[in-house]
Predict the structure.
Amino acid sequence: MSKTILVTGANSFSGGWIIKYLLDKGYNVRGTVRSQAKESRVLDGIPSEQQCRISLVHINDITTDSFDEAVQDVDGIIHVASPVQFEITDPEKDFLLPAINGTIGVLQAAHKYNQNHFNKIKRIVITSSLGAVLDQTKGLRPGYCYTEKDWCPLT
């Protein structure tokens, strides 16, 4: 029986490549998306012969129990989802807190599920986001190649 991996942020650039890799390696995938339109976009990128091994869960808002359904019966989690906004008025409220709360929500859901299911979830991978290097004071820089010197002063 194939293992199932949860990929949060399934519609993101990184999420899409992670899903492709997992499906190509024979895993089942459960992904999270925030809307029907994003679900359709994810499924449109999956070859028809692999679509039977992917399911998607809608996460509308990040709340304390947002990920409870998504973690059911998965063997591992790759947390890619993070807010991406280019019109930020309050960096803490618009960017940092949603990212922190999303990560905490995934970890809490996994912990809660594992308590009742003999530690079925064996691994959790947490990725970073563009926000780690995007300095809003410098604006968007199309074509710019970010390096380790570009860490955002807020993070």
In short: The beta strands are 4-8, 28-33, 54-58, 76-79, 123-126.
